[in-house]
TrEMBL record:
This is Pre-mRNA-splicing factor SYF2. Signal peptide: none annotated. It comes from Rhinopomastus cyanomelas. The gene is Syf2. It is found in: Nucleus. Belongs to the SYF2 family. Residues 1-43 are annotated as: Disordered.
Length: 254
């Protein structure tokens, strides 16, 4: 009985001994795993909050850009040129005030900042009368033609005096004057008009020229009329049909 009790005492757990170490070892991994899971969860929440803030910021920036684009679309087409002009005028005014404060002449200071090449170019431009700047629109071309014709008119003072004696105050028509159809042009005036018209026709014929033919260009037409049509179609729809045309030429079109 003593031996049995001794053997039984060997297997009984000691409340103050090493019997509790096994439960502590099992609790430590579970606590570490919980801490790691909690840390991972906090990291995910932090990233989620950052993404949420970035989304709100992007939404705000997109809204601001939409508002700015709407403002730009509502502006007149030449607003950028007007804005640049106004900014340049403000700079000129500030420069004038600075020169006035220093007691200097603005025109003299401005000329000192201009290079010799620019000054020479501007002088040559001023000397040219009615320079041909190329075609911009039909209104500008009509104005150039009108100015050219009016410069050719030379007043005939003798004829003016004769008409003044003949018509008196009626020579200066008012809203109540009835002079329509009473003026008969002179033969010299008609000859001048005919000579000017012939000169215009001759000058117009010189401008009418055929564009040079490109021998290296691809032939995709059957006649000249079809070539003009293909050029128009290419100008308007070329960027949309370029890939289809290439596939047809390679033979890979479906």
């Amino acid at each position: 009985a003593a031996a049995v009790s001794a053997l039984g005492g060997l297997g009984s757990p000691d409340p103050d001994g090493g019997g509790s170490s096994g439960s502590e070892d099992e609790a430590r991994p579970s606590t570490a795993a919980a801490a790691a899971a909690e840390q991972k969860r906090e990291e995910r929440l932090r990233r989620f909050r950052e993404l949420h803030l970035k989304r709100n910021e992007a939404r705000k920036l997109n809204h601001q850009e939409v508002v700015e684009e709407d403002k730009r679309l509502k502006l007149p087409p030449n607003w950028e040129a007007k804005k640049a002009r106004l900014e340049w005028e403000l700079k000129v005014e500030e420069k004038k005030k600075e020169c006035a404060a220093r007691g200097e002449d603005y025109e003299r200071v401005k000329l000192l900042e201009i290079s010799a090449e620019d000054a020479d170019r501007w002088e040559r431009k001023k000397k040219r009368k009615n320079p041909d700047l190329g075609f911009s629109d039909y209104a500008a071309a009509q104005l150039r033609q009108y100015q050219r014709l009016t410069r050719q008119i030379k007043p005939d003072l003798e004829q003016y005096e004769r008409l003044k004696e003949q018509y008196g105050e009626a020579l200066y028509p008012t809203s109540d004057s009835l002079l329509h159809g009473t003026h008969v042009p002179s033969k010299e005036g008609v000859d001048r008009m005919v000579a000017d018209l012939e000169k215009q026709i001759e000058k117009r014929e010189k401008y009418s020229r055929r564009r040079p033919y490109n021998d290296d260009a691809d032939i995709d037409y059957i006649n000249e009329r079809n070539a003009k049509f293909n050029k128009k179609a290419e100008r308007f729809y070329g960027k949309y049909t370029a890939e289809i045309k290439q596939n047809l030429e390679r033979g890979t079109a479906v």
